Amino acid sequence: MDKVDRILDQWRTERPDLDVTAMGPIGRISRLMAYLRQGMDPVFHAHGLNGASFDVLATLLRSGPPYALTPSELIDWTMVTSGTMTNRIDRLAEAGLVERRPNPEDGRGSLIALTDKGKTLIDRAVSDHCRKQEELLTPLSAEEIETLNALLSKWLHQASSSE
Hints:
Elements: H1 3-14, H2 23-46, H3 51-62, E1 68-69, H4 71-78, H5 82-94, E2 98-103, E3 106-114, H6 116-136, H7 142-161
Antiparallel strand pairs: 1-3, 2-3
């Protein structure tokens, strides 16, 4: 029994009229997210980043050469508001990790691009990040990871299509 099982037992005792089945997976996912953040944050901090800045830099890196996206594309990939993205870009630009460039396809728009300094930093950070993620998943076998990934993908696809 884990802590979530004990919580579910308490609810079943206190409110036997409720079906608390859904609390199990949702409670465990919530607790796992806190555990994962706690595990990954030190990797970000070791590179002078936080989860938000890592997300922007990693999104630019995985977009491939020239490692540049429009602000709208960054917002779409990172699922944050335009105001939040503007603040993230401003901070990354001040640190010399990204730069704003004119968008050759849209004279009124701009591109956010990795600088050489930003690319070097995110290349190192993402390598450490991947190693840490592998470490965090060590309690699961390869088959269990594959099954979990398939189930979460199914759930996420269903949740996304209902938006």
